[in-house]
């Protein structure tokens, strides 16, 4: 028996499978009559390139659908089976409409005046499906209840999105393309698996993913006008706590989508760093936020962040420095030497990140020539 969804009772499932059997049997008989040599058997219900690259698998899928409707076990369909079944139902619906026009008689159901509006009204109500509903809603019953979704119809579209979207954007679609490879031509499947392996390798790099999150925050501040939130009425710059709150608010969703936990340290003297990021128990990273004008800017590296990294055995950290005035770059320059010494002395990977929150930002040419804004 093929699984029927959306709370359909068992007796209705059995009746629905009997109808599915008649649909599939009707389609198979027509196709065998049209294709005596079985050269292109069932080719019209699959994507053309998919059929010719997986001909035996496609034919087997149709035959399995037929036998599953007669089996006592509940069978859950793969996307290839779903694609075939959906198109068989559509084929039978078109045949039924043509037969009605020519003979004033239906092939599969008793004729009623049911229309789509009635079906939609029914679906909106919290009612149980009955045996009468199969004849009442005809093919709409099967479109609605044989599939949990119809993503299998848009694999080409989703693959295009996979290639053009960022990893974070595509994850929001919640589509696992690996389950749809049977509906890809073989060359596209090979390309997808190659690209997927590359992307997964990139995604699995914890440090690189954190870098992307910081890059997104920096881009928001520098290029999307978010820096205005760090100025009080655009007159006075806000304190470090404001920067921390803004970073947490902007980056939280990004890190969550990438399975990275970001937590804040309480500012009570117990928490020597601002943010801890982790994925699992082995991948950990610290972020400390400081204003360039902070008198303890150097102390924050030598006596605070480095010591905490050593005591917690965390190798990677980011020292995020926010400048409100172009002249504050002078405070940042000495940090590079301090960070280099700490890394060499304690075998750490401490990196400097500058966030430009100036109201009148300097051009990129005015930043230090050897400065790479994304150094992770």
Question: What would your notes on this structure say?
Answer:
The protein has helices spanning 10-34, 48-53, 55-68, 79-103, 116-124, 131-137, 139-145, 155-164, 167-171, 186-204, 206-223, 240-257, 299-312, 329-346; strands at 231-232, 236-237, 261-264, 275-279, 283-291, 316-323, 349-356. 52% of the residues lie in helices and 10% in strands. The chain starts with 9 loop residues before the first helix and ends in a 20-residue tail after the last strand. The strands form 2 sheets. A 5-stranded mixed β-sheet has the order 3-4-5-6-7, with helices on both faces. A two-stranded antiparallel ribbon has the order 1-2. It has 376 residues and is of the alpha/beta class. α1 (10-34) packs across α4 (79-103), α3 (55-68) packs across α4 and α11 crosses α12 (240-257). The protein is built from 14 helices and 7 strands. The model is unreliable at 114-118, 266-270 and 369-376 (pLDDT under 50). β1 and β2 form a beta hairpin. The protein has 3 domains: 10-148, no CATH class; 153-203, no CATH class; 206-366, no CATH class.
